[in-house]
Amino acid sequence: MRQALPSLNALRAFEAAGRLGSFKEAAAELHVTHGAISQQVRLLEAWLGAPLFERHNRRVVLTAAARVYLAEIAPLFDQLAQATARYGLSEAVSRTLTVNAPATFTLRWLVPRLEQFRARHADVEVRIETSNEPVESLRDAYDIVIRGGPDTFYGYAMRPFLAEERLPVCSPALLKRLPLAVPEDMRRHTLLHTSSLPRVWPDWIAQANMPAFTPAAVLTFDHFYLTLQAAVDGMGIAMGPTALVADDLATGRLVAPFAGPRLPSRSYCTYVADERASDELIVLFRSWLEHEGEAFAGAQDA
């Protein structure tokens, strides 16, 4: 009979945390959340019936017994990786994950980060389709559906992973040509709208306390990614979701002329059929999304 073994995920979390001396760094290495590492370590401690770490505020230190345990199991992970790599030369079968997500989110947030996931999980083939259809209206079955939320759909498990706000953004060239010192200065500008988001500008203008505001012109697009591209091209001012324009702001393709007000926006969430929620591959990708969402939030707060 095979001897009972603890969860491989729990062992991986313990090995990384013990080797790095940090739950945070282990989470970054494994592309999961800090909470996921803590949970897996607790599961392993419960399975072993003994503590593995001493908690000192934000630091964790291996117990004496755990140091011995780590020294014994760490080489096994290297052996397992080498054996898997050798087997993978001829026998590996790619695992496929199907994801359905909004086009603008996919283009501006998911795709630029996806290579990080693929670099660590080369055996996973991620297939992405884009749409804005409601979760319950999708005709095809997907492993993971990404939509705004949080919403509740019968038969689906929901988890938020990325929060954002909206604020006006424009190109540096436009700002140089028509400076914006205060929101009222936007009267000289073209406001860029998206037909599917008719309330975004009116809501922001109300928060900015400009009840009689009228822009120089209005230009409306049927897709949001076209609206943002028009802003990059200097055609006007768009309401930019902070997550989707973060890279543009960082590289200077776009600028945010005003610090506020910032318009609250729905979070991005993953929706998974209840019966698939514990699937190892789905859990892996969801945890990676949540880790990336935490990293984005941390960068915004820094």
From TrEMBL:
CDD domains: PBP2_GcdR_TrpI_HvrB_AmpR_like (cd08432). One of its GO terms (molecular function) is DNA-binding transcription factor activity. Keywords: DNA-binding, Transcription, Transcription regulation. Gene3D superfamilies: Periplasmic binding protein-like II, Winged helix-like DNA-binding domain superfamily/Winged helix DNA-binding domain. InterPro entries: LysR-type_TF_proteobact-type, LysR_HTH_N, LysR_subst-bd, WH-like_DNA-bd_sf, WH_DNA-bd_sf. The keyword Disulfide bond does not apply. Pfam families: HTH_1, LysR_substrate. GO terms for biological process: DNA-templated transcription. Residues 6-63 form the HTH lysR-type domain. Belongs to the LysR transcriptional regulatory family. NCBIfam families: PRK11139.1 (NF008352). This is Transcriptional regulator.
